[in-house]
Amino acid sequence: MSSRRPDRTGLVAPAVAVLLIAVLLGSLVGTWPPFVAVESGSMAPGVERGDLVVVTDTDRAPWGDLSTAADPDAPTRLGEAGDVVVYTVPGAGGRPVFHRLAFPVDAGEDWTDRADPELLAGDCDELATCPAAYDGYVTYGDANELYDQSAGIAPVVPDEWIAGKALFAVPDLGWIRVGIDAAAARYGGVATGVVLVGGAGLAGGVGALLVGRLRRGRRR
């Protein structure tokens, strides 16, 4: 007496497909992960909270090197001129910052001389980030009232702190990533991963079952 073994390929196919897409995208843009989920409104209206942004390496062809808002030929990125980058301040213990490059600065420079006065909370003598301690960039959020270096968000940002630059945003798709990060923080990465894979497998199994029934119905 023989029994037909169930075909379980439909259970894992969706999870495998998502993984393959992510790997291919990472290979194309040169960063991992190849996207970030926006968790604040500091880059509105070009990028809203909950959007998913695809990022590339800072010198990845064909997108070229970093451009700031002050560059005369700066490309438009997410609504305004200049590249929007993801950077992390070492030792600060915070999450990565997703803001625009305003202009480059040299070590020892009083960068407030070239800054927009409306985005400053004081002159160079009043700011801990001025003069610049090293070469880097002044940065800002499009919706913020001050430069990051004037608001105390970050010192001047050197190249080595920048993980990638933005290419384009997909509205609202980032809420999935935000939810995953929140679950991982609360329940742990392993438990969250098991739930995600199981959920993808269940969705794939249900989908395969429905497709199979539709096919059998057409054959009758």
TrEMBL record:
One of its GO terms (biological process) is signal peptide processing. GO terms for molecular function: serine-type endopeptidase activity. Its main location: membrane. The chain crosses the membrane at residues 187-211. Coiled coil: none annotated. CDD domains: S26_SPase_I (cd06530). It comes from the Archaea. It is found in: Membrane. Keywords: Membrane, Transmembrane, Transmembrane helix. One of its GO terms (cellular component) is membrane. This is Peptidase S26 domain-containing protein. It comes from Halorubrum distributum JCM 9100.
